[in-house]
Design brief:
The chain has twelve helices and no strands. The chain is globular. The protein is mostly helical. Helix 6 packs parallel to helix 10. The chain is 71% helix and 0% strand. The protein has one domain. The longest helix has 28 residues.
Length: 302
């Protein structure tokens, strides 16, 4: 392993340990009378979404759809729960793909740093937003996610080039783009598909997107999550389910399954995400079932 990757891994380890220490301390301090141990459904959501996340599907939109469908998390707490709960599985993904895919170290480190800066600023805003604004924002985010899935299946996204690094104006554009994507991710807009489109537009190889997008998320999610934890703007039990179920899902996808025919699955995800988007926007308008009782126990896994 070269020194650049070793330094990146050391930094990621430090950020992750800091995140876990803050999360554990906050969870102990909360002393909530509610059940903390994740249910079978919450663990299953974590496993399934992170399994397919490792294969390039993304986890935020499918997780939001499941949360909304089964009324697992209050709408205004979904962004924080996504960021806090998916952090540990995403760190595992980043360690794997940074190790096996070679990308220019300056490009990788620069784009990761830009996304972290965007997430830090964005999380402070999103964590304080009222319920209706979160519903509107996430409804729009889900529509964007559905559009990106459709564009991917129809091969409308740019194919990219063959370079593994950025220089000059392309590097500056990459920094600006990943800063915006990092800030939007705190609202629940997954970074994977937009990041892959960004690096492809800048002429990089699509395979280079994997360590960039996973590394970006692995660094920005712990940093952004600190703001959600500080404001208690997330569901502890659901986040624990995503984390505990997600890490095994990542390892199985990366080392055992490795690849699947994903086009048909994306069409299914489009339908589910569109349903969740409509439900979220209807809730924002005060139509339908938007209020969720935080203490409600979700139904058992069918």
């Amino acid at each position: 392993m070269d020194s650049g990757k070793a330094m990146l891994f050391a930094a990621l380890a430090a950020v992750t340990v800091m995140f876990l220490a803050v999360w554990i301390r906050a969870a102990r301090r909360a002393r909530s009378p509610m059940r903390v141990a994740p249910t079978a459904l919450e663990l299953a959501v974590g496993f399934v979404t992170n399994f397919f996340d490792t294969l390039g599907i993304g986890s935020f939109a499918p997780t939001t759809s499941m949360f909304k469908l089964w009324r697992m998390v209050p709408d205004e707490r979904i962004p924080g729960t996504l960021n806090v709960g998916h952090t540990a599985p995403t760190v595992a993904e980043a360690l794997i793909f940074i190790a096996i895919v070679n990308v220019g170290m300056a490009t990788l480190a620069g784009l990761i740093a830009a996304s972290v800066a965007g997430a830090w600023l964005g999380a402070g805003v999103v964590a304080a937003l009222p319920r209706r604004k979160v519903q509107l924002g996430m409804g729009g985010a889900l529509l964007v996610a559905a559009a990106l899935f459709v564009m991917t299946n129809l091969r409308l996204l740019p194919g990219g080039g063959d370079t593994l690094g950025l220089e000059g104006w392309r590097f500056a554009a990459g920094l600006a783009g990943n800063f915006v994507l990092g800030s939007l991710m705190t609202l629940g807009i997954g970074l994977y598909a937009p990041c892959m489109m960004l690096v492809s537009l800048l002429g990089m190889s699509p395979i280079a997107a994997f360590p960039i997008m996973m590394g970006s998320c692995a660094f920005l999610m712990p940093v952004g999550s600190l703001r959600f934890i500080e404001k208690d703007s997330y569901s502890l039990r659901a986040a624990l389910g995503l984390a505990a179920g997600g890490v095994p899902g990542v390892l199985i996808a990366a080392f055992i399954v490795k690849s699947l025919p994903l086009t048909a699955l994306r069409w299914v995800v489009v339908a589910v995400v569109l349903y969740a988007a409509v439900a979220m926007l209807r809730s924002a308008r005060g139509v339908g079932d938007g209020d969720i009782v935080p203490s409600a126990v979700p139904p058992a896994v069918p």
